[in-house]
Design a protein that fits this description.
Layout lengths: L7 H7 L26 H7 L12 H14 L3 E5 L2 H12 L5 E5 L4 H10 L6 E5 L4 H7 L4 E7 L11 H11 L2 E5 L4 H4 L9 E5 L13 E5 L1 H14 L5 H12 L1 H21 L3 E5 L9 H7 L6 E6 L3 H10 L4 E2 L9 E3 L11 H7 L5 E5 L5 H25 L1
Parallel strand pairs: 2-3, 2-4, 4-5, 5-6, 10-11
Antiparallel strand pairs: 1-7, 6-7, 8-9, 9-12, 11-12
Length: 401
């Protein structure tokens, strides 16, 4: 873990930039180029491993964003990718080979489940899925050929929180590499490197970008690990466009203030839903009834902007509520300034096996909210209106009887 020079709010705005006084642009320029000119062949040899050779290898705009993220995470280095899944797949493929084994949580993003369960077996790599905070189950799943412990915290969409300290200790005991998808948390709410996690992954599309206008992935960790992943990224080609990296930098500057607002609003919304008569269950780590409340209080400064809840009724009822909302836009993704609503079984987890969904606790009645930066009172009023369709439906049913 790298020592922090400033508070998170300062790192978000100034991290990755040269603070020396100089005459130059305040905003990082967009190096919108695929290739860079050199003066002679000898210089080209030296430029190959720099950010001024070919943009698939690196780019000066990328470098500033990567340095900013590394500083926020307290990591030695960071690397940008064309998407969150590119970050996950490239990183994992760097760490394992045919014949190796991975232990991963059950309740992770649907795209990651597909990668571990459908694609890696084609390469001779097996994954055992275990319950989120059952450390004994994690340990019993470890084999002589296990190389990676893969976790996600908070999880999508049930927002479970993993005890990172226990996971890191288990990995050290068995000489394994730990990797975490920390998208829901962001380094504003939790810095996994401080708890001993080796590799931190993000869909930068979400909170880092913050405005639903770019696709990006991030890997951050120890320098030697990131250097290995960089070699794989150069081969696989999942690099980000310089203009998207510029937009990412713009988003990072407001990351701390956005996440703070989202933390506050999401908690208020979770408390409102927890009291509502048409809601059967609310999933949010800072509700005292949440199974991981104590872990969240220990390792997080806020629980993020994702709230999931289950309505009293069936899948059709959940769809009616989601479709009745106005301020919560019916759209996939999360983490932006606009509040969004989605039904996980119809979007992020649409192709996940029903038996696995059951073990994960993802039901057809579940609605996932991504809380933006609108006023919490307005968002709560919108939810009140949306949930009212359930009482109307019950009244109509009673009249029909």
């Amino acid at each position: 873990m790298k020592k922090h020079k400033f508070h998170q709010e300062t790192e978000a705005v100034r991290g990755g930039t040269d603070l020396a006084k100089k005459n130059g642009p305040l905003s990082t320029p967009i190096y919108q180029t695929s290739t860079f000119e050199v003066t002679d062949m000898q210089e080209q040899v030296h430029a190959t491993n720099s950010d001024s050779f070919y943009t698939r290898y690196g780019n000066p705009t990328h470098t500033v964003a990567e340095n900013a993220i590394a500083e926020l995470e307290g990591a030695d280095a960071a690397l940008l990718f064309s998407s969150g899944m590119a970050a996950i797949t490239t990183s994992i493929l760097t760490l394992v080979k045919a014949g190796d084994h991975i232990v991963a949580q059950r309740d992770i993003y649907g795209g990651a489940i597909k990668f571990f369960s459908k694609w890696l077996p084609k390469l001779g790599i097996e994954t055992t899925f275990v319950d989120t905070n059952d450390i004994e189950q994690h340990e019993s799943a470890i084999r002589p050929n296990t190389k990676v412990l893969y976790v996600e915290s908070p999880t999508n969409p049930t927002v479970r929180v993993v005890d990172l300290e226990k996971i890191a200790a288990l990995a050290r005991k068995h000489n394994l590499i730990t990797a975490i998808d920390s998208t829901f948390s962001t380094p504003i709410n939790c810095r996994p490197a401080e708890w001993g996690i080796d590799l931190v992954l993000h869909s930068g599309t979400k909170y880092f970008g913050g405005h639903s206008d770019l696709i990006c992935g991030v890997a951050a960790g120890q320098r030697d690990l990131i250097d290995q992943i960089h070699q794989a990224r150069t081969t696989f080609g999942g690099c980000i466009d310089p203009h998207a990296a510029f937009l990412l930098l713009r988003g990072i500057k407001t990351l701390a203030v956005r996440v703070e607002r989202q933390n506050e609003s999401a908690l208020r919304i979770a408390e409102f839903l927890n009291r509502h008569p048409s809601v059967a269950k609310v999933h949010y780590p800072l509700l005292k009834a949440h199974p991981d409340y104590a872990i969240a209080k220990k390792q997080m400064t806020g629980a993020g902007g994702v709230v999931s809840f289950e309505v009293k009724g069936n899948g059709a009822d959940a769809c009616r509520v989601a479709e009745a909302l106005n301020l919560f836009t019916l759209a996939p993704s999360l983490g932006g300034v606009d509040s969004l609503v989605t039904i996980p079984v119809l979007t992020s987890h649409y192709l996940v096996d029903p038996e696995l969904l059951k073990k994960m606790g993802v039901t057809e009645q579940m609605i996932r909210l991504s809380v933006g930066i609108e006023h919490a009172d307005d968002l709560i009023a919108d939810l009140e209106k949306g949930l009212a369709v359930l009482s109307h439906t019950r009244k109509e049913a009673a009249v029909a009887d």
